Amino acid sequence: RESEAELAFRQQAVAKVVADAKVEIPAEAKEKRTNEIEMDFLASLQARGVGADEYLKQSEEDQKKFVEHFQAQAESALRYEAVLEAVAEQENIEVTDEEIESEISKAAPRMNKEPAALIAEIKGDGKFDPYAIGNGAYSFRIDKGAFVAVISAGK
């Protein structure tokens, strides 16, 4: 098993490559991802019984800064995915559905979910945070309930 120091080093190396990469993010993709992140955040607030207005008031954040935060997250995620896809293509890296499901199964307990339920949820909505599973270096998209792109910076 990998030590925490090795994992942190790998994550920092990937972050540095992503930060230095010259990647153009299409405005439409950035807007779509921004909206997804914002809707997910608002849903999590609502689940805790907090409305957006109440959150903004408590955080002393204005609407513009609120949206800018989601835009930055969206751009970061899209840059990360684009860089990992380019590396995977260049290095001919492929990961099987079984490997993805194994990583999701390992992550499920940390998310207080059953592995099968989490896999179904991911396949159902087609979204998943690439930083949230395994070693933080997996990214994939869902198309019609099937995994279609997977990248691992750790392989």
Structural overview:
A hairpin with a 2-residue loop joins strand 1 (138-143) and strand 2. The protein is mainly alpha-helical. It has a two-stranded antiparallel sheet with strand order 1-2. The protein has six helices and two strands; from the N terminus they run H-H-H-H-H-H-E-E. It is 63% helix and 8% strand. Helix 2 packs across helix 4 and helix 5 (97-107) packs across helix 6.
How many strands?
A: 2
Strand content: 5-15%
Rg (CA only): 17 Å
Overall shape: it is: globular
Helix content: 55-70%
Order of helices and strands: HHHHHHEE
Distance linking N and C termini: 14 Å
Q: Which features does this protein show?
A:
single chain, 155 residues, two-stranded antiparallel ribbon, 6 helices, globular
Secondary structure layout:
Layout: H1 4-20, H2 27-47, H3 52-59, H4 63-91, H5 97-107, H6 115-125, E1 138-143, E2 146-152
Antiparallel strand pairs: 1-2
Helix pairs in contact: 1-4, 2-4, 5-6
